[in-house]
TrEMBL record:
ATP binds at residues 102-109. This is Myosin motor domain-containing protein. Pfam families: Myosin_head. Residues 8-175 form the Myosin motor domain. Its main location: other. It is found in: Cell projection; Cytoplasm, Cytoskeleton. GO terms for molecular function: actin binding; ATP binding; microfilament motor activity; protein serine/threonine kinase activity. Belongs to the TRAFAC class myosin-kinesin ATPase superfamily. Myosin family. GO terms for cellular component: cell projection; myosin complex. InterPro entries: Kinesin_motor_dom_sf, Myosin-III_kinase_activity, Myosin_head_motor_dom-like, P-loop_NTPase. Keywords: Actin-binding, ATP-binding, Cell projection, Cytoplasm, Cytoskeleton, Motor protein, Myosin, Nucleotide-binding, Repeat. GO terms for biological process: regulation of actin filament length.
Length: 175
């Protein structure tokens, strides 16, 4: 199969022959027009905010992206990032870190919520909605101290946020 540059069919932009801004943006634009919001570039996942609800975060996707051994088995997805961090935590017994970055209104808070929900799913506590809600609901409380309205976002954060999840030795989330 031959992939044409700008076709929107390339899941990992680091495989492009030419890695310049024009090529990257052309491919990202083509993927976005196809409704594909996630794209890898090496070990980094690029997410383009669709500014609408998508049906790609349901139980089916949680199950599909749980315990994935090879990234290229499936299309790029934020659940893959969460799954990898959780699996490496369980295997190495060492803390893992996921950095979420982007401009105001890019979807950082929503992305974090999605990753937390997937990690809870992976840890075997998917039914513990109360725990998930308590973790996710800490964000608005913290944001209330440093948010301001911008032209891109009604409540843009004015500081970095740090969220730490705690697990038992068996990988069960406890807070």
């Amino acid at each position: 199969m031959v992939l044409k540059i700008g076709s929107g069919d390339i899941d990992d932009l680091s495989t492009l022959n030419v890695l310049d801004e024009e090529s990257l943006l052309r491919e990202l634009r083509a993927r976005y027009k196809k409704g594909v919001i996630y794209t890898y570039i090496g070990d980094v996942l690029i997410a383009i905010n669709p500014f609408k609800q998508l049906n790609i975060y349901e139980k089916q996707q949680h199950d599909l992206y749980k315990d994935v051994r090879c990234r290229h088995q499936l299309t790029p997805h934020i659940f893959w990032v969460a799954d990898q961090a959780y699996r490496k935590l369980c295997l190495s017994k060492k803390a893992q870190c996921i950095a979420v970055s982007g401009e105001s209104g890019a979807g950082k808070t929503e992305s974090t919520k999605l990753m937390v929900s997937h990690i809870i799913h992976c840890s075997g506590d998917a039914g513990d909605r109360e725990l998930q809600n308590r973790i996710i609901e800490t964000s608005p409380l913290l944001e209330a101290f440093g948010n301001a309205q911008t032209c891109m976002n009604q409540n843009s954060s004015r500081f970095g946020k740090y969220l730490q999840l705690n697990f038992t030795n068996t990988g069960r989330i406890v807070g």
